[in-house]
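Below is one such record:
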Amino acid sequence: MNLTTEGWVPIVWDNGKPGIVSLREVFQLGGQIRDLAARPHERIALMRLLICIAQAALDGPADYDDWKDCQPHVAPASLEYLDRWQYAFELFGDGQRFLQISELEKVTDPTKFCETFRHGIGSAKAFGFGLLLIAPVSAP
């Protein structure tokens, strides 16, 4: 599943009907979308993702005046960005996957694991995520 081309973002169309769109369609059809159809915590996550895409695509804006001037460029720049980085938005399959680590190591040192679990890994710990996923490994 590619998040840029396959529908997964829950929305409400201007006519009040619910819909599901891809990231590309959010930017392509934004003028026809009334709102996101998401719970508050989901809305925050979706808005952060959409803002990050727009900011990365525009390489800014630097300030409020720059923001006002760049608004007509948000959709075209975001669509170009999503085309350029489409491979990075794959959710499943071989190779790079969206926000996933394909090769995790098994826990061999319980003390080190507990310390790492308490302190988190990488930049995600700054946002309170710590370890994002811990899956039990069955003994052979």
